[in-house]
Automatic annotation (TrEMBL):
One of its GO terms (biological process) is intrinsic apoptotic signaling pathway in response to DNA damage by p53 class mediator. The gene is Tmem109. InterPro entries: TMEM109. The keyword Calcium does not apply. Keywords: Membrane, Transmembrane, Transmembrane helix. The chain crosses the membrane at residues 22-40, 52-72. The lineage of its organism: Eukaryota, Metazoa, Chordata, Craniata, Vertebrata. This is TM109 protein. It comes from Oceanodroma tethys (Wedge-rumped storm-petrel).
Length: 104
């Protein structure tokens, strides 16, 4: 089934509030990208200097990155793989039982 042009235009039509929201998010992304690039430009020379300076500082930086990674992982809350696996196994068990009933 193909979409008619009118239906496509109606589906893509945005109200003034939605257009404003999209523009604000775009502006925020642009400013955020610019700020991150400036921050990266300032931090990169400092990190190179510290990297050459001392192995203890390197270990501390790696530990800090690991802690940051762990904290962000907790905040995002990735789904537990064991629960997904359990759900998949239960689904397959139901399908097997259904196939067995059909064969009888």
């Amino acid at each position: 089934a193909s979409l008619s042009g009118d239906r496509l235009v109606r589906a893509a039509a945005l109200g003034p509030g939605e257009v404003q929201r999209v523009l604000l998010w775009g502006l925020a992304a642009l400013v955020g990208s610019w700020l991150l690039s400036r921050l990266w430009g300032l931090l990169l020379p400092a990190l190179r200097w510290v990297e050459l300076c001392c192995p203890t500082v390197q270990a501390g930086m790696l530990l800090g990155l690991w802690v940051l990674y762990a904290l962000l992982g907790r905040l995002v809350g990735s789904p537990d793989p064991s629960t997904r696996l359990d759900a998949a196994v239960r689904s397959l068990e139901r399908k097997v039982e259904e196939l067995r009933r059909r064969q009888k």
